[in-house]
Amino acid sequence: MSAERNLDDERAADIKPPMSYSDYLHLEKVLDAQEPLSTARDELLFIIQHQTSELWMKLAIFEIRAARAAIAEDSLRPAFKMLTRVARIFEQLNSAWDVLRTMTPSEYSKFRDALGQSSGFQSWQYRSIEFLAGNRNLAMLKPHSDRPEITARLEEILGEPSLYDEALLLLARQGFDIGADASRTDWRERRQPDERVQAAWKAVYARPDEHWALYELAEKLIDFEDYFRRWRFNHVTTVERIIGLKRGTGGTSGVSYLRKMLDVELFPELWRVRTEM
After folding, report:
1. What CATH code is carried by the domain that includes residue 229?
2. Cα dist from 154 to 64, 71, 132, whole Å
3. What is the pLDDT of residues 55-111, one digit of tens each?
4. Is residue 4 assigned to a domain?
5. Whole-model pTM?
6. DSSP state of 89
7. Distance between CA atoms of 101 and 18, rounded to whole angstroms?
């Protein structure tokens, strides 16, 4: 009987409790990550807005990387699905600004000083998205210079073709003349718009039935940047609504800096070709 009892005890020890919803999502860790530094009730809104945005950006980075790899392998249908998801992620990010805009200037001023020098300008995930898409402004490495591990991650992205670079290389593989973009090896530097690339996209748009996969890829890229531009615009509007023209906490000029970013194009030839159609 003693041996049987010991065996039952061993079996009982091996039985694991069923995984719960909270266990799977590590909810205790997630829900304990909000630590307001002031007594202002609106600080919790501010923290959750930015934490959830960073989570969505994490997924966007995952999907952009996957889409880039799929395009490089000429596997376009999966890439279309991934790029559609990226656009929907930015639609979700856009909706988040609507919640933050319920905070008034007086409410924000109650905890702004607690932020110190922290700023969304320092979001390395946002920078990753820009670099992955193709906006390779090397000056934007500077805000992360105090974090060598983050700088290394960003440098890794800069050492590889961007999403748009892969789209252009696909054009070249399909027989289009895209000029110097077909033989680029230095991916770190920001590329300049090229008339031959624009002419290639014009040919795709002029005969979509002949180039349907490229035509659909172009539209998926435009969808992505369309929502990305709206995110930038909503960012500007929200900041101006809450702090006016004051300087940002991270030392930027605030609204004036964000307005300049509205002019940045991720996929310039895809926008400019529309004037020629």
Report:
1. 1.20.58.480
2. 15, 21, 9
3. 999 999 999 999 999 999 999 999 999 999 999 999 999 999 999 999 999 999 999
4. no
5. 0.90
6. H
7. 41
